[in-house]
Protein 1
Amino acid sequence: MRYSPGYKEKKYAELLKTSGRVLKKNGFAATGVDALMHAAGMTSGAFYSHFASKSDLLLSIVTSELTNSQNLWASNPYDSAEEWIDFELDRYLSLQHVQHPEDGCMLPALSAEVARADLSIRERYEQELSKGHSILTQRLGDEHLAWVFICQLAGSILIARALHDENLQRSVINASKFFLKNALASKRGMAS
Amino acid sequence: MRYSPGYKEKKYAELLKTSGRVLKKNGFAATGVDALMHAAGMTSGAFYSHFASKSDLLLSIVTSELTNSQNLWASNPYDSAEEWIDFELDRYLSLQHVQHPEDGCMLPALSAEVARADLSIRERYEQELSKGHSILTQRLGDEHLAWVFICQLAGSILIARALHDENLQRSVINASKFFLKNALASKRGMAS
DNA sequence: GTCTATAGGCTGATAGAC
DNA sequence: GTCTATCAGCCTATAGAC
């Protein structure tokens, strides 16, 4: 074998990373296998030594991207629930996130295409997103509120990205941020 | 001329309607001109007597779909702000809406692709969505809250559609519905 | 205005050399 | 494991008959 052991695993991980970036930026249906492999410095023929099909790639991307997001949450330096949430809201609801989908969360970028994809992909998405929902439920102390947060976060970035004016983008994400922080504060007020 | 006057306008309106349905269901990039025209009972050659390009169609769809949504709001039978909003929340945050994107709002279905489209399309989207935002601001009495509602609504349908389990879809939209109704009630409590 | 036919390019996927 | 070469099929868009 001319390739060292572990090489394939390393290339696979690299492919998931670069493909994830391209897909979040340009969309799944709009992106060809050629473009994906070019972004990784390879040619399209090599794609099929890593993935059975383009749809198999989406399945893998759903897993890796949502796992990445959970790892990002784990890097949050704060312990107290309020500070932890505030930190995540500031990170998610930012102009940086609106304007750089390739570095951001897959939910606003790819959920609409996941919704149109095969059953196996939607099941994987559900499974991985449920893990994120559990983590958020622990922090918020309320499983319904956790869904509300997820939908508000993804929806805000989705809408803000489709707008052209940067000031309007800012209005949208700030309105959501202020509202979610308030919702959290008033919930705490109720609990105490 | 072998076609009656007004024929082209009628066909154009019909094309916008059928194309809107197909695009919301299957996505813009994933749908070919052939499929769009087939849905209208025509062949692809005729497409270009109505639209300059496929991207020109998206521009027109953004207008017609968002205008349709505003017309739907105008059909709301209630006068009082609270009843008006409740009616819209029940209509938007329904399993019917989750499971039939072709009959629903364009925001959760097509916003991600609008975000990747030409400047002219994003400008049109911004212009039309701003009209909707104004209407909602009048009903809610708060322009920030109006953006929050729009993002929560679109985000909830976006996420629910990508999930597989119907019970989980129900959980998501009910959590959002309950939360938004509560937010409105507590705002009214503050105002009084 | 709609049709068929067609152009040229890109798509997902496979076969075989290295 | 990656490459080049290749396939059939689909894509957007145009030309010309009716």
Protein 2
Amino acid sequence: MTSAEILQQHGIRPSLTRVMIYDYLREHRTHPTADEIYTALSPNAPTLSKTTVYNTMKLLSAEGVIKTITIEEQQARFDACIDTHGHFLCKDCGKVFDFDTELPSMKIPEGFSPTVTEIYCIGRCKSCN
Amino acid sequence: MTSAEILQQHGIRPSLTRVMIYDYLREHRTHPTADEIYTALSPNAPTLSKTTVYNTMKLLSAEGVIKTITIEEQQARFDACIDTHGHFLCKDCGKVFDFDTELPSMKIPEGFSPTVTEIYCIGRCKSCN
DNA sequence: CTTTGTGCAAATTCTTTGCACCAAA
DNA sequence: TTTGGTGCAAAGAATTTGCACAAAG
């Protein structure tokens, strides 16, 4: 399915800019920051602004099209893959890796309704070990 | 066990300031921010600086005495309870709740060594539902 | 005296806001 | 012609850094 179609399904108007940004995120599973997305797309979209990247990430995240990863304190990262999986942050090289995991059996108290569940680990990756 | 003893066990010199901060965190299971800790302790410790709170949180977190919760994008929260449990952020009232959970069976790739595992949910709490 | 802890002020960095202009329905 | 999207510059907020002084071994 195309990025435009996915956006539309979520009630988001698929502007050129939004499609370009979402496309980038779907094709680069590196959990980029807003700045990395901006820097990567700038050459082909000279008028693109960081504000628009932030606007778009916030919109897509709110509509559940992407996930915002807050594993690092300093900056948010983004992931177009919204299937259940975990994130591993290497505290040496700073890279974020995906890993397979089940959802744990969580005892969420009565009356609490979660919409997002995240699992993450921090440690050292294979290359840094 | 006293806070001073716990700090010592982790190789951290239990200065008055560190013990005071760690004590506060042990007694207030509200997942406070650095600013909240600073504001709460300031009246009794007029010379305390926010820098020291940040220094202390970073040190205690690095030594595994406390956990840094990065469920919110804007600011870090801290938790003196390092037993396995999940965190639930209510996107309406902003409070962070604890919930019981098992560790999921995670397929961390060969060669990756995690030191911290976090499970969190975002949604709406009982009061806001 | 030598290392470690604390604290002020300034700097840095990520993110948001206000506002104006442009584009689309 | 009204709403929604984009972008610049400025503001805001959390955290870090540089440096100096104080305290502890």
Protein 3
Amino acid sequence: MRLVLHIDLNAFFAQVEINRNPSLKGKPVAVGGGVRGVVSTCSYEARHFGVHSGMPLSDAYKHCPDIIMIPGDYHEYSRQSHLFFDAVREIFPRIQKASIDECYADATEFFQDISDDEEAMYERLFDVQMKLLRRTSLKCSMGLGHTKFMAKMGSDYKKPLGITFLLTPQEWQTKIWPLAIGKMYGIGEMTAPKLEAVGITTIGELATTASEGARKALGSNFDYLVGWANGLGSDVVSTESSQRKSCSNDVTLNQDTTDYDELRQWLVQCAEDVARQIRREGLVTRTVCIKLRDNNFYTETKRETFEEYTDSAETISFHALKIFDAFYRGQPIRLCGVSVEDLVKPSAVKKNIQLTLNEALADGGDSGETK
DNA sequence: TCTGGGGTCCTAGGACCC
DNA sequence: TCTGGGGTCCTAGGACCC
């Protein structure tokens, strides 16, 4: 059986901020901002006050009036993420990045000589954790199991700096089965209440269910989720970095607006940002989508697919505005944005691609900016 | 001063073609 | 003159995750 390790950077953004400003150490710190923003990540001290990611800033201040709010520096987080995972890769050559702050590693060979001695394995993993901490000043927690799902549940089990083994059915059933169903990766805030309504409140209850109600609540996801709850699932750590499929930029306005021209200007700005990003990455698109969220938090998306692939800001803006004109009805808008889908490398496109002259010139260069 | 921003995957239905 | 079946593409939205 393969051994899969999941590594999760604990309160990653907050850690980065504390590392570069040690006076924040031991204090309730949150990364987040904007007039109508939410907490992106917060320190464990802030969590003691009940603050958590996704919480509106106004609520965070209510829970913890002294919270130190820091606007995010995502370039820096991305840079440190790369440094961290480069360090991981030196120890585990086969890793699969799952997000900016977590990855899976194939640890089968790493433990090959001691795979029957959990104590020795634990010590070896603890050494890795400390080595990574010394090297990057970043704390991580780790989970070890036979599938990616098991490893993921393990790294979440104890934070920060936790190490959790889920290698035997006993470990799995004593540690994971008692957890609330909402703690299961893959069960979100829409599905958890449905399962609770049919009497399934823990992961163990899902694992052993024979309930028709549960089958109905989960629909086509029933089989694999019950499998996961029983420790089944994929153990394939895929090392190739996957090509991104979409790129988006949206903005929550400081105040709701019905101003047609203002909304158009925001959309153009979002379209330009998206075009800049895909050009930087050497990608082209043929589907443009706009998103509008109204004052009731009702969100609509509309998209259009066209013949020719493009990376032109003008073309993307043109389509975004065309869609907007066709369906905006004057309701107060709190968020608008543009995304592009069907992203591909130009070389993968058989049909002729329309690149503007400027953008074609910028293609090999550093700056994708035109006009 | 309720509810960010950036993603992924999936589903269902309609249009269209043979 | 009453209506198949299969396949693909496109669209809109749901759910989830960090």
Protein 4
Amino acid sequence: MVKIVDVAKRAGVSTASVSRVISGHPGISDELRERVNVAVKALGYRPDLAARRLRSGRTDTLGLIVSDIRNPFFTEVSRAVEDVAYQNGMRVLLCNADEDPDKEAFYLEMMRDENVSGVILSPTLALLKSLRPANYPFPLVLVDRCERDTDADAVVLDNFDAGYRLTEHLITQGCQRIVFLYGSVGSTGPQRHQGYLAAMAAANLAPEAEPIAPRSERAREVASLLLQRNPLPDALAASSGLVLLGIAEAVKAAGVKVPGDIAIAGFDDLPWTSLVTPDITVIRQPTNEIGQTALRLLLERVAQPERAVRRVVLRGELLARGSTQLR
Amino acid sequence: MVKIVDVAKRAGVSTASVSRVISGHPGISDELRERVNVAVKALGYRPDLAARRLRSGRTDTLGLIVSDIRNPFFTEVSRAVEDVAYQNGMRVLLCNADEDPDKEAFYLEMMRDENVSGVILSPTLALLKSLRPANYPFPLVLVDRCERDTDADAVVLDNFDAGYRLTEHLITQGCQRIVFLYGSVGSTGPQRHQGYLAAMAAANLAPEAEPIAPRSERAREVASLLLQRNPLPDALAASSGLVLLGIAEAVKAAGVKVPGDIAIAGFDDLPWTSLVTPDITVIRQPTNEIGQTALRLLLERVAQPERAVRRVVLRGELLARGSTQLR
DNA sequence: ATGAAAGCGCTAACAA
DNA sequence: TTGTTAGCGCTTTCAT
């Protein structure tokens, strides 16, 4: 392996100069820089990252802990984060907590061990409730999930508003008995549920909601039961794409007509939601913007550790489609 | 920060002993081990990974470079790889090459810089054609994509067989003019195409196939054109889940009846394929097994660098569904 | 603007 | 079985 002394010898300079050149330090004569660059190329030199990290204390690495990598929402966000990170010369350690607080804790420990510059995280509700960002040796940016009083930078959807508008839309379309199925492991489901409750109350309708584990299988089971009722509810609404999938599966299995017998609506503009017949009304989340913004917040926090905590709240876009057509 | 000397002092032993205990070396007296463990806990000591890596030359890290993180097939594989890796005490560096050979090369360089123990990779065709595993300072295990003469451990589907059986199934269902759309950036599309050609030849049918960029948008465009023909083809077959999605979108937009006017079939048992009406015939890939096997191969290769190259070929499962019902 | 040299925290030879 | 110590490759004072 070629090391920095080899380059230094070849270029006829000191190792310090080589280090300065490859780290892009200012105040280097053009001639020396050129000599070093030539030697680096000639020898195919690559700095040893472990040595560099040990000595400098910096890692240029950041962590991204998503709660479920199979959820396309997080996949999209991850892609956006990764893209921007590499454009900024940072590496990303991507981890999948699988909605499991134990795994989540394990990965956060790991981030500490890895001495990352910062972490982007979509926490479980359990962690969120007890989160003390000051306890971590790195800055934290939350995505998708965050409570009103959480003391950390965050990028989230206006979940209350989204839940409200989705419900309001259903009401406008003539639905009254609207059942809301929401994931209870994160904070988004409950927040969207609050929006649902407010919209129902504003219309003087009786709410009915079911908190469930955020997996399509579970949503499907619960929805199946709901679909055996007589009379049927007017609508089933979901707090996420995963829950919506379960509902759609249950509806298909039960053979009820949408929107004739029942309306359905949910979150996340996934390809399949516009592929099925009828296509399904959803609130679209700006996944790219969420990921990019989270990374930007993190980089800014790294640069200025003391600046005030910021929360970026993005608005969902209601895509009204066939599944909620006027009855 | 508490370091190894602090622990050594507190336990009244040498740093070497502490190092031995925390690295799980054999031949340590129970009493010393106990003393060290107590001190470690009391001080909350965590080894500095950079120092450890610099000194030992090992990183206990492996790389996973997928060609498209948004493709659910790779998401599933990634999850499986990550799960097993962490069970084995290894960290995973997950990167998304986005089907771009430049990014792919960049990430492979990065893996070298990170000094990973090994890399799991789904290469673009461009890379695969010129791949010299011996050129990399780490072992390589290919997933999903590999050619007959590739000189590296690999876990792949029997793509020829899968393409053959999917086509054969369509023929059995009465289709004759079967158009095959396949992704041309990886090796799987072309291999499945070969299976398609063989099945068509065996039935004395004239093949017609379109190589396309592996994105649903592109598949949709090409399929739309195909659907304007008069008469329509008997069937449209896809070499991947992404291509199948594009076909399904085009079919819906064109308003043609499936399987009445045209049959469709493809790959990957994604949730939406059984959600649409009619549900869609696919070849299911054993994603979990692919990921787990790839990791196993890699760990075995790390343990025994000189063992013979192995290729694990898994069989796809034909899920015959409504979209290819007998005409 | 450049060089000399100390030392980041740990592991592994070697010694005892 | 345990301790002593050199040194992994780099960055960063400090000196010039």
